[in-house]
Specification:
Length: 198
């Protein structure tokens, strides 16, 4: 199994998952600055020339959240995802879609403002407000629970946790005390450290 990877990108999500699973994998580092994500070979793996891509014996797939779910499915014995049809599985779908459609877009928007040094603009404040609204259910969840689903770490924590740790690095969760504790909890995991270590 190969993971096409660029440090400090969304490819840390499947890498974190692989580390949590503790299964062997080959990490293929690509350097966008050298054009390595824009080769014909990589374009056949990912039509938008992005990472991550996971390559298995059966073929390759892209989209970080889909890869995380698939990895959990490949290793049911590790119990990082509920059984198909279970409520735990439904909750995992809920939080993964929530991370990708509600949490991540305002983060991306705010990150672009930071890069353009327009973080004081009304548009940047709007992105911040959208993010603050979206994290409310999570702030409530973590007032009584350590993880997203039940009492155990799961695949949902990988995707939601990765988005929240990014938001935290941009100063977006400073007013959400339970989220801050959650982010510290997940950053303390050896698998997180391995995935985000470079
Ligand atoms: N929705 C996709 C987004 C993938 C994406 O935008 N990846 C970025 C890095 S975070 C990328 O590969 N950008 C092009 C590059 O680095 O050359 C996912 O979650 O996998």
């Amino acid at each position: 199994m190969k993971l096409y990877f660029v440090p400090r990108t969304r490819s840390t999500r499947p890498r974190w998952m692989l580390e949590e699973l503790g299964v062997p994998y080959e990490l293929v580092r690509l350097d966008p600055a050298k054009g390595e994500t824009r080769t014909d070979e990589h374009t056949t793996r990912h039509p938008l020339q992005h990472v991550p891509v996971l390559e298995t014996r059966e073929g390759s797939i892209f989209e970080s959240a889909a890869i995380v779910l698939h990895l959990a499915d490949l290793h049911p014995e590790k119990k990082l995802l509920g059984a198909p049809g279970s409520h735990a599985r439904a909750q995992a779908y809920q939080w993964l879609f929530f991370a990708m459609t509600e949490l991540e877009p305002p983060c991306i928007e705010y990150a672009l403002h930071l890069r353009a040094k327009t973080e004081g603009s009304p548009e940047a404040s709007l992105a911040k407000d959208k993010f603050s609204m979206a994290v409310r259910p999570l702030e409530r969840r973590f007032s009584a629970n350590d993880y997203l689903i039940g009492d155990e770490f799961s695949a949902a924590d990988v995707v939601v946790g990765a988005v929240l740790s990014w938001a935290n690095a941009m100063g977006l969760i400073s007013e959400a005390p339970n989220l801050s504790v959650y982010v510290e909890r997940i950053k303390d995991r050896p698998a997180f450290k391995a995935a985000f270590g470079d």
